[in-house]
Amino acid sequence: MSLVKITIGSTMAQDEKGRFETIAHGELTEKNGTKYVRYAETKGTGMEGTKTTLKWTEDTLTIIRHGVYEHTQELRAGFTSHTMYKTPYFAIPLEAKTSNLDIRGKESNWQIAAVYEVTLNEDPQGQIILDIAIEEEEPSGN
Q1: Domain, as residue range, for 20
Q2: pTM score, whole prediction
Q3: Is pLDDT of 1 > 90?
Q4: Is residue 142 part of a domain?
Q5: Which of 6, 50, 91, 133 could form a disulfide with 69 if both were Cys (CB 3.0 to 4.6 A apart)?
Q6: Structural domain includes residue 63
Q7: Measured CA distances, 104 to 2, 109, 119 (Å)
Q8: What percent of the chain clears pLDDT 90, i.e. is strictly above it?
């Protein structure tokens, strides 16, 4: 297990000024060639009380949320994921059609980039450009 800093940026392709970026701190583990990063969402993301897991292999990224918000979304080039996005107020069908996924890195430093089209309740929302940087952190208190 490694302590990591996770920087997540997302942009709606049609609105370059609408970039959202958040930084979280969590743990990176590996099991049978699959990498896992787990972290707690913060008040700044609007999902406080939710734990997020990023799970990836060489060609697939899965985003799993448990807690106040419940959601599992698989991103893989050429694949369309169908899931339910559950909030404290409603559940809505979500579709994500991935056009590009690029995963690069080694050990505790990774770069993940994805481009996908989102549809909520059969209403197209546009293209999302997602970039994730995972960097090993030095233990504090040394």
Answers
A1: 2-136
A2: 0.90
A3: no
A4: no
A5: 50
A6: yes
A7: 18, 9, 27
A8: 81
